[in-house]
Amino acid sequence: MIKKYLLAPGPTMVPEEVLLEMAKPIIHHRTSEFSNIFANVREKLKPVFGTKNDCLLLSGSGTAAMEAAVVNCFSSGDKVIVVNAGKFGKRWVEICKSYGLEVVSIDLEWGRSVKPEQVEAALIANPDAKGVFIQASETSTTAYHPIKEIGNLIKLFDSKLFIVDGITSVGVVETKMDEWGIDILVTGSQKAFMLPPGLSIIALSDKAWSFVEKSNLPKYYLSLKKERKSQSDNTTAYTPAVSLIIGLNKVLDTMMNEGLENVYGRHELCALATREAVKALGFELLAKDIPSNAATGFYLPENIDGGKFVKFLREKMGVTFAGGQDHLKGKIVRISHLGYHDIFDTLTAISALELGLKYFGYNFEVGVGVKAAEEVIFKYKVSKL
Amino acid sequence: MIKKYLLAPGPTMVPEEVLLEMAKPIIHHRTSEFSNIFANVREKLKPVFGTKNDCLLLSGSGTAAMEAAVVNCFSSGDKVIVVNAGKFGKRWVEICKSYGLEVVSIDLEWGRSVKPEQVEAALIANPDAKGVFIQASETSTTAYHPIKEIGNLIKLFDSKLFIVDGITSVGVVETKMDEWGIDILVTGSQKAFMLPPGLSIIALSDKAWSFVEKSNLPKYYLSLKKERKSQSDNTTAYTPAVSLIIGLNKVLDTMMNEGLENVYGRHELCALATREAVKALGFELLAKDIPSNAATGFYLPENIDGGKFVKFLREKMGVTFAGGQDHLKGKIVRISHLGYHDIFDTLTAISALELGLKYFGYNFEVGVGVKAAEEVIFKYKVSKL
Hints:
Protein name (chains A, B): Serine--glyoxylate transaminase
GO molecular function, one term (chains A, B): L-serine-glyoxylate transaminase activity
Distance between the termini of chain A: 35 Å
CATH superfamily of the largest domain in chain A: Type I PLP-dependent aspartate aminotransferase-like (Major domain)
Number of strands of chain A: 13
Oligomer: homodimer
Number of domains of chain A: 2
Largest interface: A-B, 42 and 42 residues
Radius of gyration of chain A: 21 Å
Pfam families (chains A, B): Aminotran_5
InterPro entries (chains A, B): Aminotrans_V_dom, Aminotrans_V_PyrdxlP_BS, PyrdxlP-dep_Trfase, PyrdxlP-dep_Trfase_major, PyrdxlP-dep_Trfase_small, SP_NH2Trfase/AEP_transaminase
Number of helices of chain A: 14
CATH topology of the largest domain in chain A: Aspartate Aminotransferase, domain 2
Mean pLDDT of chain A: 97
Family (chains A, B): Belongs to the class-V pyridoxal-phosphate-dependent aminotransferase family.
Strand order of the largest sheet of chain A: 2-10-9-8-5-3-4
Shape of chain A: globular
Low-confidence stretches of chain A: none
């Protein structure tokens, strides 16, 4: 018997009560019953996005919403700046290039967070750039970029949009779209929203909507103008992912019930405990500047093959971590703190990590990781109960 | 958000796939569809009981099956020997006395396992005794009694039955009913069979069935003769707990799939890891002679109120342990290893125990319990993967 622990940065575990909600008989989407749920979801998303504007739901994973951001707000030949600090930064580059945009890429070593000054320099060097694309949390490197500070910079330019991939940050850390000057914010269902994949959410500022009017890129399924019209009437342009939206309604209730501050605090605590455990075990964090609270990546010793390590834990011990992507493949491990994840998931992650390390011959004192994690958890949570 | 971890010795956690099986639309019990499932369950139970005889299913919890053992095989005024070493030994005494049996009680300090010589002495002192009642695993003290050895003793007496409460031993440790001379073996659904409570199972040897013919105690719902007749035809005398039986069918498949040896080994491993952790934390095990692999009980320091401790872990941290019963109330904690429980449940249990101990001011080095548990788990499991 192997119990399964899904501790990779998405898809994440789904709460039992949400699974049960989604397992109820399917309802039709062109009904007042669905429209009521849909209206509720749209309202409840706003505080999580930190916006007064519409949060539009798309049936598609996070990449669909990223593409929607590009094709709805830009035109062929537009110059844009992309912070490229990992696999998902690279995805912004690829999407933009696919549609004929001219990309000025701020290339960073994987694991680094961009400095606001670097963005400022790019803006100064490229006065004709129409927007800045970034990840809030770059899932491939588990680094966080200083979104608030960069947003405050870009706010000063009427002619530029600030487009943020919040796929592993919305619902993980406080995100104040309106206040921070984020013009487009996208996220997906399978991360902090603890749902199965298949649903993404996108919100646009008034400035971004003004760009929509000028965009000449081809689009049909991802047309946000059409979605905004339909969704304002609490329906969707095309068939929506009904059960995921019903699940999201339940998830948002549980998040509101827990309190957004507590949701963010829980992610922060599990992330901090994991970072301290990983350091106590003698490893170097992948995120050099600002580690993300969505997941923690670290380098394995050179004599351990990360691919084999992750496979062993998944297949033999039931614990799914993520390995590295692209040039980090086989070199790192990433442990998620996302969504339906509590302190005992973190402690399970660290115990599993220790057992795996011992199996792979790493020389360390068994228990030091868990001890470090328990001390963080005691200090910031249990002692305050 | 508080995730729930049910780590008390029953009810135990139910596997998701079993919950889903039981959530399917209910079927009628007087159908060939149900009879087929019922026939399968009856066959699959036999290796777990270690018997070639019928395993009868009763809709009622374990105590119902205990009562069935008494009322079907004995008569008013019969003398019986009861090994009374905890709350459930006391239950045998109470049931027997309720029906006018004369009880010779072998009273033991809670936490002790009976010695075969003590049973032998009682048999010699009471040649007219008709049976010996015992728990295999006394859940209230987490002690195991040497069933095999006692069975071999009683085998020598044609005129006596050996009645074993296997509620927290069947499915936990190897139990060879026929080979060990057990005449009546009972168990419940909510322990090693990882189901919700409400179903119990009882098997009788040929010798026990011959006692049934002579019993004069009143019975109706618990009449085993009537049940045997119905269940031989793959139906039940009264309405059965349909969904629990369907769940049991699924559970038995998963147990066979895992392999009974592996099921027993898993319980043994989690129990051993917990015992080592508890000892490393400086505590004394409640079970003095033979600790049960179903659960581990230990004494808390005198200045920690066990009731408050268990309540804190359950309500504030989501982790349900059991406290003590009767005179041990407030003094001990019992951690289960039963059923749908794996190494990470054990490690969660130990982490939660450590965090709780620190909260309650116990002076120890955080992490020593988990370290001890991890070392056991590595030695006996992970290193062999």
